[in-house]
Amino acid sequence: MYGGKHVAEGDTIFVFASENEGGQGLIARGVVTSARPIAKKPGIARQTPRVSLSIRRTALARRALGRRELRHLTDWNDGAPGTELNFKFYRQATNKIVGLSDEATSFLASFFSTA
Question: Are 4 and 99 in contact (CB under 8 A)?
Fold first, then answer.
């Protein structure tokens, strides 16, 4: 969904713990060490592409970023990075991998210490 099926080894990834399953939102940044597609099940017409990932964590989030912080960002056409995240992660409450714009990536990077 939203370009996530194109994730590849070496990509930087931001990990969110699903708030629908008791998580807290943004928790870590990492690098994909392996990405492989999972085969579709036969006999099912519409299936979301699935990918199996291994990730090496490179940093822990230093500030909270989840549904509560993004909820007010609902002008889907404003071009703001927080709105992009709200739209992609929370408009449809399912676990997913998404591709992000450079602006959203920079925004997320600000939630990690530079040291």
Answer: yes
Helix (H) or strand (E) holding 33: strand 25-38
Q: DSSP class of residue 71?
A: T
> pLDDT tens digits, residue range 21-30?
888 899 999 9
Looking at the DSSP bridge assignments, the partners of residue 97 are: none
Nearest to 86 by CA among 99, 100, 71: 71
Give residue limits of the domains in the chain. 4-109
Residue 1: other Cβ atoms inside 10 A: 13
Both tokens of 96, joined, read 């997913």
pTM for the complete prediction?
0.83
Do the Cβ atoms of 113 and 59 come closer than 8 Å?
yes
